[in-house]
Design a protein that fits this description.
This protein has helices at 14-26, 64-83, 99-114, 124-130, 150-163, 206-212, 288-295, 298-306, 308-319, 321-329, 384-405, and strands at 4-10, 32-35, 52-53, 87-88, 92-96, 120-123, 138-142, 146-148, 167-169, 174-179, 184-188, 191-200, 219-226, 229-231, 242-245, 257-260, 266-269, 273-274, 340-342, 346-353, 363-366, 370-375. The chain is of the alpha+beta class. The protein contains 11 helices and 22 strands. The longest helix is centred in the last third of the chain and has 22 residues, at 384-405. The strands form 5 sheets. Strands 1, 2, 9, 10, 11, 12, 21 and 22 form an 8-stranded mixed beta sheet that branches. It has a domain at 1-86 and 148-218 and 355-406: FAD/NAD(P)-binding domain, CATH 3.50.50.60.
């Protein structure tokens, strides 16, 4: 009979590997399988984000985002120190460029106080002292914000998981799931895999995984491409911190920012443009299936109606490099078109509800033997270690209920 694992994890990104690692810590000696559809780990959101270790400035007090981000900031740095993974704490500056943004800044100051995040409020002169190349009328300095390679963290987690006896199967895409009273079976081109309990961290495919379990999802994953540029290397010292805009609360996404990367380079971005393929990292990428699923979802039409002006602006700036440049020139006016070099894009897997609202917090769904991470946008990478712990807490509740039914 084919081996039945204790636990099976779908997804080889940072959430999947964090969960797998902590399952072994909580359940020593357990048999564990990780299935990843790509030939390498961290192929999608984990390996294509800005690498920021967030502090939790923006998130609603009491939300899972606020809780896990603050815990994850500490846990991520501790993991890096323990395993010799390079990271830096440049700190972040949220820069107000006009009086309207200065007023909005007050709301962020209050939110930082509610979330107990250490900050320093700077006036225009203090901002110039810290960042001579940045223009603004005020700023919030967040010292705990850092930068890291999350792909490097995943590689270390995978090493730990393998050394503790787990199997990691790459290039193994799950086509079908079947749940029985005593196990879950995953069907792949490489054969069937079985486990007593399943955790799915499938990112861009999470709503499809929920449907595979026989549950109709009350959300749809809508892919938004985040396009970046990298500054010419002569500008690697143009900023001393990570530089973020003051977000407009009426808009769904944050806006472009300057990020000092762990390799010493500086990136600009991302924007947020609707993608026509769930893994569509290039503008020309198109999937008929993905597009039909996107535009047949009632929530997508309501979202576009609500934010059509900002959607058109994002699209225009995506197609027009000068328009994109203008966004960052608000606070870094000396940059020129020639300074913006090509850089890989990422895709944000955003859950959208039927009413057209963006699902703003982490979202989970479960059956008797399976738990699916349905929505895990930023700051999911920062929060991966506490999210993994939360997943296991929920999974252990399922295990207790199963034991009662046995």
């Amino acid at each position: 009979m084919k081996k039945i694992y204790d636990f099976m994890v779908i997804g080889g990104g940072i959430l999947g590997l964090s969960t797998a690692m902590q399952l072994q810590q909580r359940h020593p000696g357990c048999s564990l399988l990780v299935l990843e559809k790509e030939a390498v780990l961290s192929r999608h959101q984990t390996g294509r984000n800005s690498g920021v270790i967030h502090a939790g400035v923006y998130y609603k007090p009491g939300s899972l985002k606020a809780k896990f981000c603050k815990q994850g900031n500490i846990a991520t740095k501790a993991f890096c120190r323990e395993h010799g993974i390079a990271f830096d704490e440049f700190g972040k500056l949220l820069v107000a460029t006009n009086d309207t943004e200065l007023q909005r800044m007050q709301g962020l100051i209050e939110r930082c106080a509610e979330n107990e995040i250490e900050i320093e409020v700077l006036d225009a002169e203090q901002l110039r002292e810290r960042e001579p190349n940045i223009s603004g009328v005020g700023a919030i300095y967040v010292p705990s914000t850092g930068i890291v390679s999350y792909a490097a963290i995943v590689e270390k987690m995978a090493q730990i998981v393998r050394e503790n006896g787990a199997d990691i199967e790459l290039a193994t895409e799950v086509d079908k799931l079947e749940e029985f009273t005593d196990r879950v079976t995953a069907y792949t081109a490489a054969g069937r895999f079985q486990a007593r309990f399943l955790v799915a961290c499938g990112g861009l495919q999470s709503d499809r995984i929920v449907r595979m379990l026989g549950i109709e999802p009350d959300f749809r994953i809508i892919p938004f491409r985040g396009e970046y540029y990298q500054l010419d290397s002569q500008h690697n010292q143009i900023v001393n911190h990570l530089i973020y805009p003051i977000p407009d609360p009426t808009l769904p996404f944050l806006g472009v920012h300057l990020t000092r990367m762990i390799d010493g380079s500086v990136t600009v971005g991302p924007n947020a443009v609707l993608a026509f393929r769930r893994e569509g990292y290039r503008r020309r990428d198109f999937s008929l299936r993905d597009s039909i699923e996107t535009f047949s979802w009632p929530g997508m039409l309501r979202l576009l109606k609500r934010h059509y002006r900002s959607s058109l602006t994002e699209l225009k700036n995506s197609l027009s490099k000068p328009g994109y440049l203008k966004q960052v020139q608000k606070y870094c006016p000396q940059l020129k078109l020639s300074d913006l070099q090509a850089y890989p894009a990422g895709i944000r897997a955003q859950a959208v509800a039927r009413d057209g609202s963006l699902v703003d917090d982490f979202l989970f769904r479960n059956s008797r033997r399976a738990l699916v991470v349905c929505n895990a946008p930023s700051p999911a990478a920062t929060s991966a270690i506490p999210i993994g712990g939360h997943i296991i807490d929920q999974l252990e509740t399922l295990m207790e209920k199963d034991a009662e039914l046995a």
